[in-house]
């Protein structure tokens, strides 16, 4: 207990002394060791990297999860090192409600059958959104969080140590400067007119004491300089590592963009299906292609439709094809008679 109290008192004394020294530096009343220009540039680059990484990280979180309550819940689960529970996306919920409504209204009715088609599309959109959120969280948010909570904390800790070493070094310089001034004053030529030689003896004794004080201050300065240089090198190496951090974040950014592009492509494909949702005699107008965009095509090979959104083909038959905005370039909308659906481009020979 006594040791803790003494240590606390000592730390408080050091903190107060450094606070006074720091204030005097700001007022120009104390000496300050300046870092070289390259080091200052490294510090500025590190601060800029931290600030922008933090802003990008926070805004990406908002993009992936707009609900602030859900973000807080996920944050708490991460801090407690527990698995985040699975949560349905809004698209998946909407699709589920449409499918349940179709069951009640009757899947054989025009409204019910259309609800089934649209509900399936909404579920696919929700699934694509979930996949994008998971990929972006792992490939992009994870590395940014690791930098802010890992590398940056280490850099900040070493920078604080360097600042303390600098303050210690400057304090040693100040003590040495004062000791040398006192030594010079004590070693000044004594007044030999003095009738009592005792003053000369005291002056010589004081000069010897101040000489010892100068030697001690010089030794402390050498130690402080060594510790400052060592800590400066450690901090410099960490700051220079910011360059590799940029390279890593660039790779993660590419993965984020690729995941986002895949997500938007999936949305475009589902959007094309939604445009082709039609009723069978229920009074709802069919989606008609723009006349200028229609072409004739010859089927090269037989093709069996994978689902109700696609059109089965027979080799050598002629069909009408066209595209819709946002549709996958590997597919076209095909029509033959009263049938319509997606067809793969590779199975067709487009005719002029």
Compact description:
With 352 residues, this protein is an alpha+beta fold. It is built from 7 helices and 5 strands; from the N terminus they run H-H-H-H-H-H-H-E-E-E-E-E.
Please describe what this structure looks like.
Helix content is 67%, strand content 7%. α2 (37-64) runs antiparallel to α5 (110-186), α5 (110-186) packs antiparallel against α6 (198-240) and α5 (110-186) packs antiparallel against α7 (242-275). The chain has helices at residues 2-26, 37-64, 68-79, 90-105, 110-186, 198-240, 242-275, and strands spanning 295-299, 318-322, 331-336, 339-344, 348-350. By secondary structure, it is of the alpha+beta class. The longest helix has 77 residues, at 110-186.
What gyration radius follows from the Cα positions, in whole Å? 38 Å
Q: What percentage of the residues does DSSP assign to strands (E)?
A: 5-15%
Structural class: alpha+beta
Which spans of ≥5 residues are poorly predicted at pLDDT below 50?
Answer: 191-195, 279-287
Mean of residue pLDDT? 82
Please, how many helices? 7
Order of helices and strands: HHHHHHHEEEEE
Question: Which helices and strands occur, and which strands form pairs?
Answer:
Blueprint: H1 2-26, H2 37-64, H3 68-79, H4 90-105, H5 110-186, H6 198-240, H7 242-275, E1 295-299, E2 318-322, E3 331-336, E4 339-344, E5 348-350
Antiparallel strand pairs: 1-2, 1-5, 2-3, 3-4
Subcellular location: Cytoplasm
Keywords: Coiled coil, Cytoplasm, SH3 domain
GO cellular component, one term: membrane
